[in-house]
Design a protein that fits this description.
The complex is a heterodimer of chains A (448) and B (173). Chain A has 448 residues and is mainly α. Chain A has 20 helices and three strands. Chain A folds into two domains: 232 residues, no CATH class; 130 residues, no CATH class. Helix content of chain A is 70%, strand content 3%. In chain A, strands 1-2 form a two-stranded antiparallel ribbon. In chain A, helix 12 runs antiparallel to helix 13, helix 14 crosses helix 18 and helix 15 crosses helix 16. The longest helix of chain A is centred in the C-terminal third of the chain and has 39 residues. Chain A is globular. The longest helix of chain B has 17 residues. With 173 residues, chain B is an alpha/beta fold. Chain B has a single domain, classed as Response regulator (Rossmann fold), CATH 3.40.50. Chain B contains seven helices and six strands. Classes of the chains: A mainly alpha (448), B alpha/beta (173). At the A-B interface, helix 1, helix 16, helix 17 and strand 3 of A face strand 2, helix 1, helix 3 and helix 6 of B.
């Protein structure tokens, strides 16, 4: 069965992993991740989930102290589309071996060409308009357009560049100058294409590219992604890939991360605005409720290994892995136990995250837990604390702890099976040969 | 076919990167990541008699000492074949595998195989003429199972003294 599964999964992983567009989108998001985390922390301080928090600090800093913090937050996730367009443009240029920084700026220019730049309002003398960029075009609503524009603009740029349609400078001209002239014609072509595109979109009922992509691409994808079904596909396939030694999330994130991230940031914006949080299945749902201690939710496994196993081989690895596990690192387990290519351990390795996903979904769907606020916490934020900070409810911490305990129960019979085998090996070996450990101290000098 | 594995701390199940300084040690029998390669070893009638390990940082700092000790321990245990790896794209482990592979090839008659991913290109180009280095994916990459199988098939052929020229073209660097 595993052979057959491998035959199906390998080509899929291979295609996704080598698809330059998907890889560029995934990596492009990574560029803005640290900024989103820092921006989120500012927002979290402004809206810390303790009653009386705002009033308390207002006594020292005056009313409205939060707005200083919100400004920083706004500079990150309220302009997420700009960050995305730069990030994806840059990484796509890297993937197709074009000039990276030129790719990034050509992408952002194209994005702005498509953007409506006038805002109408009711002035004293009737309807007036003002030249400005509406934040709604550069926030989450523009994310998918940002991705499309980056890929398209960098493709055109690189295509023209590689055709050799460039202005060549004589030798001796400094490289910076030569590069900038070389980029002139390709840039012009990109800008011309987007100039035409803008006109075309204005003629359609959608009126703008933003509106078009949002309606035909973003809204349907987000609707599909914001579901328990999508989460289950994501979490199960991430684990299954690991069995074959393939870094599961690295593959699945190429498809899912743009969707989960957009959902998170929409919650974050609602949180900032103080309006009801719209989505359950956000990136935070994935990060903070699906797995604990890394892929496969191995924190539960490590606890069992440490506390309830008897063979030296397993207890020792458990002890060594607990501290990294608390911070979400499980490499020692994945390769050292191992999980990879281990048909026994893969069952709970898939089962526990699946269980966590379903139970958390129930906790959110039934209203037992308040929705996540989208605050991007550093992934090392310890369990319990992260649940509280992301929902403002201690019940979320409780759910996290309960899930880890349930995970222990699921892992228990499987790791015990392995434990028994190893224990038998160890006993057998110690009867057969007193020195199971090989000591290098006993080598005599003449051996060397 | 008696097989001896040489691991770093991660593959030995002795911890993660933070344990890179563990000195060399070993066990008679199977440890750590052995279950991954074991089914393929069974296919070629291979049995692991011992696993030796060393933290990759410890090796880097004490190359001469580790090399000498590993060589003499391998001589003492006298396996039919030594497998240094799989080292994935772990740079320290790949260096250790290749270096020990070379030392063992030069100082013993026991066949040696190393395995690492193409990311270690400097190490590969430096050592590939001294030791057979089997191609494998990086950590989390595609094709692990296949490469483990290749290691075992090559091991068997080397032990039996068969001609490995064609096979090497296919599966080694």
């Amino acid at each position: 069965m595993f052979d057959r599964l491998e035959k199906v999964l390998m080509p899929t992983a291979d295609k996704l992993g080598k698809n330059k567009t998907l890889v560029a989108i995934r990596d492009g998001f990574l560029i803005s991740t640290p900024l989103i985390i820092v921006g989120s922390l500012f927002l979290l301080i402004a809206n810390f989930p303790i009653p009386g928090w705002s009033e308390f600090w207002a006594r020292f800093f005056g009313e409205g102290w939060e707005s200083y913090l919100s400004n920083v937050a706004r500079a990150t996730f309220d302009v997420i589309s700009l960050l995305t367009v730069i990030g994806v443009g840059y990484s796509y240029a890297r993937e197709i071996e074009a000039d990276k920084i030129q790719g990034a700026i050509v992408a952002i220019v194209s994005f702005i060409i498509l953007m409506p730049t006038s805002i109408t309002y009711e002035g004293a003398g009737g309807i007036e308009s003002l030249t400005a960029i509406n934040f709604s075009f550069i926030g989450t609503n523009g994310i998918f357009l940002a991705m499309v524009v980056s890929i398209l603009s960098v493709s055109i740029f690189s295509w023209a560049y590689k055709k050799g349609w460039t202005i060549k400078m004589p030798k001796g001209v400094p490289p910076a100058v030569a590069d900038s002239f070389a980029a002139l014609i390709p840039s012009a072509m990109v800008m011309f294409v987007f100039f035409l595109l803008r006109i075309v979109f204005e003629l359609t009922p959608y009126e703008s590219a933003h509106n078009f992509i949002y309606t035909v691409l973003q809204a349907p994808l987000m609707g599909a992604g914001n579901s328990l079904g999508a989460q289950i596909i994501y979490v199960v396939s991430s684990s299954v890939f690991w069995f074959f030694g393939i870094n599961g999330p690295a593959v699945t994130n190429t498809v899912f991360s743009p969707i989960f991230r957009t959902l998170s940031i929409e919650n974050l914006q609602a949180f900032e605005a103080g309006s009801p949080l719209p989505h359950i299945y956000t990136g935070q749902f994935v990060d903070l409720f699906q797995t604990f201690g890394g892929g496969g939710s191995t924190l539960s496994l490590v606890i069992i290994m440490m506390l309830f196993c008897k063979s030296k081989r397993i207890t020792q690895l458990g002890k060594l892995s607990i501290v990294p596990g608390i911070f979400g690192i499980n490499e020692p387990i994945i390769f050292g136990l191992p999980i990879v290519l281990n048909p026994i351990m893969i069952i709970p390795f898939i089962g526990v995250p699946f269980m966590n996903t379903v139970l958390s979904a129930i906790a959110f769907e039934t209203g037992f837990l308040p929705y996540t606020n989208g605050v991007a916490l550093p992934w090392t934020t310890p369990l319990g604390f992260s649940g509280y900070l992301s929902t403002g409810s201690l019940k979320a911490s409780l759910v996290q702890v309960v899930l880890v305990i349930l995970g222990c129960i699921v892992y228990y019979p499987f790791i015990k099976m392995l434990d028994k085998t190893y224990l038998k090996d160890e006993q057998y070996q110690s009867e057969e040969d007193e020195l199971e450990d090989i000591s290098f101290d006993n080598l005599s000098m003449k051996d060397l | 076919m008696k097989v001896l594995m040489i691991f770093d701390q991660i593959q030995a199940g002795m911890g993660g990167k933070e344990k890179a300084d563990i000195p060399l040690g070993g066990k008679k029998g199977e440890i750590g990541s052995v279950p991954m390669i074991k089914p393929h070893l069974n296919d070629v009638d291979g049995k692991i008699i011992a696993c030796l390990y060393c933290g990759d940082e410890y090796f880097e700092k004490n190359q001469d000492e580790v090399s000498k000790k590993m060589v003499s321990m391998v001589k003492k245990l006298n396996p039919d074949v030594v497998i240094c790896g799989p080292a994935y794209n772990y740079k320290g482990y790949a260096h250790m595998s290749a270096h020990l592979g070379k030392e063992l090839s030069e100082k013993t008659d026991i066949p040696v195989i190393a395995a690492m991913s193409k990311e270690n290109k400097d190490i590969i180009s430096k050592y590939k003429n001294s030791v057979n280095i089997v191609k494998m994916p990086r950590k989390g990459g595609i094709g692990l199972n296949k490469s483990l199988k290749n290691i075992c098939v090559l091991a068997q052929k080397m032990v039996n003294g068969e001609d490995i020229k064609e096979l090497k073209k296919d599966i080694c660097y």
